[in-house]
Design brief:
This protein has 236 residues and is α/β, with parallel strands linked by helices. It has 2 domains: 1-22 and 69-110 and 157-236, 3-Layer(aba) Sandwich (Rossmann fold), CATH 3.40.50; 24-66 and 112-150, 2-Layer Sandwich (SIR2/SIRT2 'Small Domain'), CATH 3.30.1600.10. The protein has 8 helices and 9 strands. The strands form 2 sheets. The protein has a 6-stranded parallel beta sheet, with helices on both faces. Strand 2, helix 5 and strand 3 form a beta-alpha-beta unit. Helix 4 runs parallel beside helix 8 (221-234) and helix 6 crosses helix 7 (188-194). Bound molecules: ligand BJW. Ligand BJW binds next to strand 8.
Length: 236
């Protein structure tokens, strides 16, 4: 890949945060933090039993608050600080490790653990504290409508108009640590490729999207991403 890239777009998934000690979703036993993802991350599960889902995310917040970025997140900062291209980060992760690493232009398409949305009025606010179904929205005053600002199965993704434009304008699309099974993010590589981007996949193993990438780099992202960044900086 010797093109001089003008617009690099990263798509990241749980694998980029694995070396920061955070669980991925689809590990071998199919459980995620001892829960089936379908029991806590669907809008139906939330509407059926909001307190169960609140408890799950209340328990997760302190762990994500104390997590620290690893060399993969930091490599993106290094690239953004030293490469002339426009560089954007579309992440499926609800952790804030890209922010903690100093990355810029971050789009959390599946939401953020430290944000709450009122389903009545749409007000979004930040907190690392617990919430429950007794809490009241400070904007509209309605009780019981606060939800973690996390995109559950069956809900629309965030920032999709912006992301669609980024996918069509990037000339290098780099997927890092995502299994490529959750749509629409799993289809992003196809759009970027159709609009002329080179495509690279960084993962520990082959994914179901394997054939859509021009190049694969296997191994832990904390090692492979800094190496790719070095290569990109040598060719800028
Ligand atoms: C490493 C590593 C290391 C490990 N280094 N790598 C089209 C076709 C079929 C279905 C659909 C479709 N369009 C929509 C759907 C339905 C649905 C869907 O995709 N279902 C499929 C599962 C079949 N999608 C949706 O509902 C989405 N909404 C939507 O499309 O709205 C429009 C619509 C509405 C109504 C009807 C129809 C359409 C919403 C998706 C929301 C996803 N939410 C979650 C939970 C968030 C909660 C939370 O974070 O707590 O987001 S699910 C979960 O999966 C989470 C993740 O962001 C997402 C992706 O997972 P990810 O990041 O890929 O993690 P893993 O664990 O799967 O993979 C980790 C990878 O890392 C592995 O490959 C490892 O090898 C690798 N790895 N260590 C590098 N060190």
């Amino acid at each position: 890949m010797s093109r001089k890239y003008k617009h690099i777009l990263f798509l990241t998934g749980a694998g980029i945060s694995a070396e920061s000690g955070l669980s991925t979703f689809r590990s071998e036993n199919g459980l995620w933090n001892n829960h089936r993802v379908e029991d806590v991350a669907t809008i139906d599960a939330y509407l059926r039993n909001p307190d169960y889902v609140h408890q799950f995310y209340n328990d997760m917040r302190p762990e994500l608050l104390k997590a620290v970025p690893n060399p993969a997140h930091l490599a993106i900062t290094e690239l953004q600080n030293n490469h002339p291209a426009q560089i954007d980060v579309v992440t499926q992760n609800v952790d804030t490790l890209h922010e903690k690493a100093g990355n810029k232009n971050i789009y959390h398409i599946h939401g953020q653990i430290n944000q709450i949305v009122c389903m009545n009025c749409g007000y979004v606010f930040e907190t690392w504290s617990d919430i429950n179904s007794e809490d009241k929205c400070e904007k509209c005053g309605i009780t019981g409508m606060l939800k973690p600002n996390i995109v559950f199965f069956g809900e629309n993704l965030l920032y999709m108009n912006k992301v669609d434009a980024l996918l069509k304008s990037c000339d290098l699309f780099v997927s890092v640590g995502t299994s490529g099974v959750v749509y629409p993010a799993a289809g992003f590589v196809q759009i970027a490729k159709m609009f002329g981007a080179d495509t690279i996949e960084l993962n520990m193993e082959k994914t179901s999207n394997n054939l859509l990438f021009d190049r694969h780099i296997y191994g832990p992202a904390g090692t492979t991403l800094p190496a790719l960044v070095k290569e990109l900086l040598e060719n800028k």
